Amino acid sequence: MKVLIDMNLSPDWVQEFKRHNIEAVHWTAVGKFNAPDIELMDWARNNNFIVFTHDLDFGTALALTKAEKPSVIQVRTQNVTILHLSKMVITTIESYADLLEKGALLVLDEDKQRIKILPL
Q1: CATH assignment of 2-117, given 3.30.200, 3.40.50, 1.10.3470, 3.30.300?
Q2: What is the C-alpha to C-alpha distance for residues 104 and 70, in angstroms, rounded to an integer?
Q3: Which residues of 30-41 are buried (b: 16+ CB within 10 A; e: fewer)?
Q4: pLDDT above 70 covers what percent of the chain?
Q5: What predicted TM-score, i.e. pTM, was given to this entire model?
């Protein structure tokens, strides 16, 4: 599994994912900081990465385009620090790895997680 971390999350997530044997790259290492979301989505799809984001637009983009990939993990919390989210994010990724590999939108908030199979 490979994770592409969106601009709105810390590059420090790369190391956190690596600590859990998940390959990860921050968008700043592969694309322009001001690139439109569609460019990030295309890169993730073409390189078989899952998008990890705090941006609500990605779910909408998946729905509007009826895309089957890339999978998106969308965090819907105010506190997006690694200390606060790591356990929840890593545990959830491990639990839903098969679905994320096939194509899914995974929404995480403080109290629950929801997963929808792509296309939406």
Answers
A1: 3.40.50
A2: 8
A3: ebeeeeebeebb
A4: 100
A5: 0.96
